[in-house]
Amino acid sequence: MTESLMPTLPGHYYTDPEIFALEQSRIFETMWFCVARAADLPTAGSFRSVDVGRESVLIVRGRDGGLRAFLNICRHRGARLCVEESGTVKRALQCPYHAWTYGLDGKLIAAPNLTSMPDVDRVEYGLVGVHLREWIGYVWVCLADRPPAFEDDVMGAVTERLGDLSAIDSYEIEDLEVGRRIRYDVRANWKLIVENFMECYHCATIHPELTEVLPEFAGGYAAQYYVGHGASFGPEIQGFTVDGGEGFAKLPGVTGDQDRRYYAVTIKPQVFVNLVPDHIILHRMYPVAADRTIVECDWLYSKEVVASGRDVSRSVELFHRVNVQDFDACERCQPAMSSRAYARGGVLVPSEHHIGAFHDWVLAKL
Ligand code: FES
Ligand code: FE
After folding, report:
1. Fold classified for 32-147
2. Would you say the pTM of this structure is higher than 0.90?
3. For 278-290, how does the pLDDT look when each residue is reduced to its tens digit (9 = 90+)?
4. CA 80 to centroid of ligand 2, rounded, Å
5. What is the CA(264)–ligand 2 centre distance, in A?
């Protein structure tokens, strides 16, 4: 191999169900995994069930206002407690099989004939808890018995990319509201989506609208290539919108340095954060199979913009197009991963060499 070209992972890393199973157990079931926007669970009794690795996890808002996460499995004979993706219960979660009933804090509170079984400990036979953290208005869970430090794994990714945490704090993401959410069903391995997000070699070819707004992207170097660097808007560009027209007022905490710039952060394994002065675009990936990934993308705006009912569609349209362009490219690669032409993988050009570090990270985890 020449100096300019570095090898990628071999093709079967993107297709082999056994490798995907290893990724589930060693990456998605051991790291912090972003499952929801906290505001998606607005009131006591609101719940969401989300697949994390091979487990179904139930996130519930308690009567004390706090969020808790549990394995979505009845302690009696193992029935799945909630089959709906989201909903609200009045005050308890009841298993549809034999009616064991759990409080919103997970404790067993009732079961047919429970009073005649006084030796049954209601905490011991409560739902199995899962670690949960809230940050920037999102809910992360971790299935590991002893989770890695959230400060290192999640916040650390932001520090590594932006230089320090205050650079994201200034956007006050926890106070923003979802102005639009789009769910993409992508027929591609999750790693192709991460690799694509990490490079900009493709920007000039597939992202005409984005390179119009961020002219330096046409050069092929991703904003995340340099610590602390955000790509500048072109001189004629008024806002981060599909035609470069005016967006909204910049978020109140955004600094002068951050104005008219775009920053992108990858929080491994499944979150991308995109920062622009007047909104945030946050992607969460849910890998469902070696060749399929659900991506949920939120466009977050100030409460005032959302409450005013102002039209966000030109602002949403820019990154929606970018998403479709990116996911089409990933879907174009996916079938080729099993070709003999890709059995030993492909190559990375110098502006993509940092993806090699992502490959090393995956290999180390497996
Ligand atoms: Fe849930 Fe029996 S399996 S009550
Ligand atoms: Fe792209």
Report:
1. Rieske Iron-sulfur Protein (2.102.10)
2. yes
3. 999 999 999 999 9
4. 38
5. 11
